[in-house]
Amino acid sequence: MKTFALTAAALLIAALPALAGCSNTQYAAKPEGGAAPSAGGTGIKQEIRANLSGEPYTLDPAIATDNTSFKVINSLYEGLYTFDKKGEVVPGSAAKVDISPDGKTYTFTLRDNLKWSNGKPVTAKDFEYSWKRVLNPETAATNAFYLYYIKGAEEYNKGKGTADQVKATAKDDKTFVVELNAPAKFFPKVAVNPVFLPVYQPTVDANKNWAAEAKDIVSNGAYIASKWEHNNSLILEKNDNYWNKDDVTMQTIHYKMIGDQNTYYQMFKSGELDLIDTLPIDVLAQEKSNKDFISQSDYSTYVYTFNVMQKPFTNAKIRRAFALAIDREAIVNNVSKGGQKPAYGLVAEGIKTPAGKDFREERPPYLKFDATEAKKLLAEGLKEENWATLPPVTLKYNTQDGHKKIAEALQAMFKENLGVDVKLENQEWKTYIDTFKHSNFQLARMSWSGTFLDPLALLDLYLGGSPNNQTKWVNPKYDELLTQGKIEQNENKRFEILHQAEDVFMQDLPVIPIYFASKNYLKSKNFEIPFVPNQEPNLRWAKKLS
C-alpha cells in the first residue's frame, strides 16, 4: 500500500481528475486552523436569508433523497470527502487517504481535532456505525445502493448477510478501512453523496425522532441547527466545534419555507430574502438582464415517472405513445423558459467521455415529437391489452407554479396529440415525497440530480433492486450492464457499456425525460456568493458586503 500524506495548502486546489485517477493519486488537504477569511473587512454581521421552498422531508442523511433536505444536511454534516469552493471533490474529515495498489482498499486517517457540535470527538467508529446503519434493512434507506461498491454491503442491505461482513471497519479511533468489491476510480466522487455522512450514535439510538427537531440534532459540519419552526423557518449557526471553522465566512443562514414562487420572488424584491432560486416563469424574461441574475448548468433531468405496474402503463407501447406525444421544444421555449434543454435521453448533458465528447452527443436522440406515431402506438397498445378505451390516467406533481404549468402543458398535449383526457393532482412537497416513495401514482413528476458527474449517478437509480426505483420496472440486462460498468477499468469500454445500459432503458421507457435542467438564481447585490455549475451554492463561503 502506498501512503500519501496530505500536504498543506493544496486542499482547495486539488483537481477532480486527480481524484478519479489511479491508486497512487495524492490527495491534498487544507491545513487545519488556517487564517480566518475576510468577511468584507467591515465588521458586517454575516447572515443571509434564503428560501427552501418547503419543509425538509428529513434531516437524517440516511433517509433524505430530496434537494430541499440536502441543502440543509450538507451544511450540518461533513463526510470523509467533501466539495471545495470550485466544486471539486477533496478530503473532508479525512486527513489522509491511502489506496492499495490494486485500487480496492481505502484507508482513511481522520483529522486530529474532529468534534461533534456537542464537543465530543468524531471517530472512525462513527463512520462505521453510520454506514452500516444506512445498510441495515430496518433503516429502509432509499439511497443505500450507493454503498454497494463496498464488500458485503449489498448482501447486508438485502438481508443476505450481516453487518460484520460489511468491509467498512474502524481499526481504531482515527483509522477507517474500506474494501471495495472491485477497483472504482470514481469512488471518491460517489462518497460525497449525503448517504455517506456520519451521524451521532448516542442521539440516534436514544431517540427515533432525533432528526425532527433542531435541539436533538448533533452535527459535525460547518453549521448547527439552531432553531426550527416547522413549515415556517430554519436557522443554521456556525459550528464553533467544526475543524475548519476559520474557513467559514457566513455566520448565520436563515431559511424560509415559502412554496409559492410569486410570494418568495416578491419577498426578494422587497429585501426580505437575499437569495432565491426557481424564479416564477412570468418574470424570467425581465430578470435575465439583471446583473444579479445567475443561470448555470445543473446535472439533472426533469422526468415524468411511470409506475409500470399500474394500468395503462403496464404496456410499453402506451408508455412510448405518451412520450412521443410531448413537444419538448415547446415546453422549454414557451413554458419553463429558464434555459433548460429538451431531453431525448435519461443521462443529462455535462459528462465528458474519453473521446472528448459529451456523453449525450455520442448517441442519437432516443425520442422525438411525433403525434402520428404516438396515436399509432396507443392504438396498438390498446389492442394488445383488449381495452376498448384507455383506463383513466392521473398525472401527479408537487405544488409549485412551474410544475403546475408544465403539468398543464402535458395535459393539453396528451389531449391534442393522443385524444386522451388526463386528470391532474398536486400535493405539498412533504406529502408528495411519501406518495412518490410508495409508488402511489400512474405518472408522476420528479427531477433527478447526479451527485457526481458520471452516467452511473443517474442510471443507478433504476437498478431492479434499488429502493429508489419507484417505477417498479426491472430489466436483468440493464442490471447486468450496470454491474459491468462499475468494474470495467478501461474508460472507453466502461462508457460504451453505460451507453448500452441507457439503450435498454430508453427502449423500455419507464420514465419520460422532459428536459435537462438549469438553475436560475437571484442574489442580493450586497452579497458575494460562490456559484459552481451542477451544484447548489455553498453558503458557508458567502459574504455580506454591506
UniProtKB/TrEMBL annotation:
Residues 88-469 form the Solute-binding protein family domain. The keyword Transmembrane helix does not apply. Belongs to the bacterial solute-binding protein 5 family. Keywords: Signal. CDD domains: PBP2_OppA (cd08504). This is Peptide ABC transporter substrate-binding protein. The lineage of its organism: Bacteria, Bacillati, Bacillota, Bacilli, Bacillales. PANTHER family: DIPEPTIDE-BINDING PROTEIN DPPE (PTHR30290:SF79), PERIPLASMIC BINDING COMPONENT OF ABC TRANSPORTER (PTHR30290). InterPro entries: Peptide/Ni-bd (IPR030678), SBP_5 (IPR039424), SBP_5_CS (IPR023765), SBP_5_dom (IPR000914). It is found in: Cell membrane. SUPFAM superfamilies: Periplasmic binding protein-like II (SSF53850). It is a lipid-anchor. Transmembrane segments: none annotated. Residues 1-20 form the signal peptide.
